[in-house]
Automatic annotation (TrEMBL):
It holds the Pfam family FA_desaturase. GO terms for cellular component: membrane. It comes from Mesorhizobium qingshengii. The chain crosses the membrane at residues 51-75. Keywords: Membrane, Transmembrane, Transmembrane helix. The keyword Transcription regulation does not apply. InterPro entries: FA_desaturase_dom, Fatty_acid_desaturase, Rhizopine-oxygenase-like. GO terms for molecular function: oxidoreductase activity, acting on paired donors, with oxidation of a pair of donors resulting in the reduction of molecular oxygen to two molecules of water. Residues 71-315 form the Fatty acid desaturase domain. This is Fatty acid desaturase.
Length: 359
């Protein structure tokens, strides 16, 4: 029987609050004030450039799908469009939810709303959910965004790469919310004054999907659904490949991001799709640093962080044996080794049983 209650209103929630894990003070690497001020400087330029590239690539691949529809030539355009719609929208949603991608607020808001729709995520609900993920990262009973729970469901984790489970999970939630019903978990992190907005947002999303289905039926073609909605199913694999590595196999119920978050070096294409979120320890320590400044932040604080995984392949080879062992010993996790230049993990920062760690 599992020891962890992943609901946000159960026993683990009570324990997290009583032990001080909820909304705790987290460890931060020391960064000179002047350097941090420079890193946190916001600018419209990089995000406008990257967003224009993203939009042009989406429109070009969509045009290719329409032009070559009904032939095998459509396949490469489906591949590109799917990843841009179903995967790269996640990083745009993420950075714009923080309000750091652009300096101009309305630009963040517009991209956030578009990306939320692409991902079948209620923009009101997920803004508050992600705020909780940052204040209580991988704190069981508090964090609503724990992707792989313990003991791990390996079949569910494997199916995540297909997009089937997330699609099957996200759409019914939007339908439920559109009927005005929020779950107890959702009510635990969405302020009461925002809950009505969440219902309205869900209704707008569902209305667009209904219109898309109606157009598909009217034209007797799958094309409208292939362009709107279904990319959330067939294009999500890159988002899952990169996103699972953020925290999987590492410690839970700690307040040191070096213990529960992973940085992975990635190729330039994946970094563009992912908007530098591969520097994930750095992002969690300093979430107000824009995505385009994360490589510089990494160079500044890497002396105090575990060695990054050199590739995604290396990271998954590291994770797999941890997951297998967690099937029998759910307290088991990987304790990343710190370099000699780092400040040590300190016991007063967390309640985790260090004897269960994989050295």
């Amino acid at each position: 029987m599992t020891k962890r209650d992943y609901s946000l209103v159960g026993e683990s929630t009570r324990i997290a609050i009583e032990t001080g894990l909820a909304s705790a003070e987290w460890y931060h690497t020391d960064v000179p004030r002047k350097a941090m001020k420079e890193l946190m400087r916001r600018s419209d330029g990089p995000a406008i450039r990257d967003t224009l590239i993203w939009i042009v690539a989406i429109l070009a691949s969509a045009a290719g799908i329409v032009w070559f529809w009904g032939t095998w030539w459509v396949v490469p355009f489906l591949f590109v469009y799917g990843v841009l719609y179903g995967s790269s929208s996640d990083s745009r949603w993420h950075e714009c939810s923080h309000g750091t991608a652009f300096r101009t607020r309305w630009m963040n808001d517009v991209v956030y709303q578009i990306a939320s729709f692409m991902l079948m995520r209620n923009p009101v609900q997920w803004r508050w959910s992600h705020a909780r993920h940052h204040t209580d990262t991988i704190i069981v009973g508090r964090d609503a965004e724990i992707a792989v729970m313990r003991p791990p469901d390996l079949l569910k984790a494997a199916l995540a790469f297909t997009g089937i489970l997330d699609f099957r999970y996200s759409l019914p939630i939007l339908v439920r919310q559109a009927f005005g019903r929020l779950s107890d978990d959702e009510k635990s992190y969405i302020p009461e004054m925002e809950q009505g907005k969440a219902v309205v947002a869900a209704r707008w999303h569902i209305a667009i999907y209904i219109a898309t289905i109606a157009l598909a039926l009217y034209t007797r073609s799958w094309l409208p659904l292939v362009l709107i909605g279904l990319p959330r199913l067939y294009g999500t694999w890159h988002m899952v490949t990169t996103g699972l590595l953020q925290h999987i196999g590492l410690a839970d119920n700690v307040v040191d991001h070096r213990l529960n978050t992973r940085t992975v070096y990635m190729n330039p294409i994946s970094r563009f799709i992912y908007w530098n979120m591969n520097y994930h320890v750095e992002h969690h320590m300093f979430p107000m640093v824009p995505y385009h400044a994360l490589p510089r932040l990494h160079e500044l604080i890497k002396h105090d962080l575990p060695q990054p995984n050199p590739s995604m392949w290396h990271a998954y080879r590291e994770v797999w044996p941890i997951l297998l062992r967690q099937l029998k010993y759910e307290d088991y996790y990987l304790k990343r080794e710190l370099p000699p230049t780092a400040r040590p993990y300190r016991g007063e920062f967390h309640k985790v049983d260090m004897s269960a760690a994989a050295e």
